[in-house]
Each structure stands twice: as C-alpha cells, then as structure tokens.
C-alpha cells in the first residue's frame, strides 16, 4: 500500500516517459514520510475509448488515483495528493501546452479492515 493507478488518454502516450514518472511519483510519496518504498505500487492504463467535452482529438486527460489505507486523516491524504499534482503536470507539460489537457489526482481511501495481503 499505496497503489497509484494512472489512467490516461491514448493521445497522451507519446507525451511522457511513464517509468520516469513512476520513479518521481515514488520519490515524492517517500518524501511524505508516510510510506516505505517497497510498499508503493504503480501502474498505468492507456484509454483508447474516451470522450471529453464535445469530443475531438485535441482533448486529453491524465487521472492519477492514489489508493491508500484510511488510517491517515483527510489532511494527510490531501497533502500527499497535492504533492503529486505538480509531478504529474510536469510529466505532461508538452501535452498541457499542445492539447486541451486535464491533469487530476484523486485519493481513494481503502478501509483498513477490508484490505489483506501476503508479502514474500
């Protein structure tokens, strides 16, 4: 825990190096003092089927969901999300200038009493 899930429109595919982005996101998460590096898991999902506004190829978005246990209070969760938004925005800077692009971060609390895992 936590899980970072990046959904992005297919027209953003060439605009960012996702491995470098994940590295920076993990560094930022670590800097919060809330997580151990080996616990942070990231993945990206490219969306071929999407529709933004009135449609058109010039619309794009990247949406980062941060799934974390609910044992942290809302202020901590908000601080973490706000620290990741500039990292995501920087990674997609060219898209922000060349497309009609939206970058967003969402915290998704996971109930602590309903999350289980096994670690080797």
UniProtKB/TrEMBL annotation:
SUPFAM superfamilies: Tautomerase/MIF. One of its GO terms (molecular function) is 5-carboxymethyl-2-hydroxymuconate delta-isomerase activity. InterPro entries: 5-COMe_2-OHmuconate_Isoase, Tautomerase/MIF_sf. Its EC number is 5.3.3.10. Keywords: Isomerase. This is 5-carboxymethyl-2-hydroxymuconate isomerase. The lineage of its organism: Bacteria, Pseudomonadati, Pseudomonadota, Betaproteobacteria, Chitinivorax.
């Amino acid at each position: 825990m936590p899980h970072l899930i990046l959904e992005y429109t297919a027209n953003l595919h060439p605009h960012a190096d996702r491995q470098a982005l994940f590295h920076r996101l993990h560094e930022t998460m670590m800097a919060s003092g809330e997580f151990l590096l080996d616990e942070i898991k990231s993945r990206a999902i490219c969306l071929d089927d999407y529709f933004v506004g009135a449609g058109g190829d010039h619309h794009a978005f990247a949406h980062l969901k941060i799934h974390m246990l609910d044992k942290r209070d809302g202020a901590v969760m908000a601080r973490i999300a706000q620290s990741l938004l500039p990292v995501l925005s920087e990674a997609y800077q060219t898209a922000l200038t060349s497309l009609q692009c939206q970058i967003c971060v969402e915290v998704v609390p996971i109930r602590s009493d309903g999350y289980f895992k096994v670690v080797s």
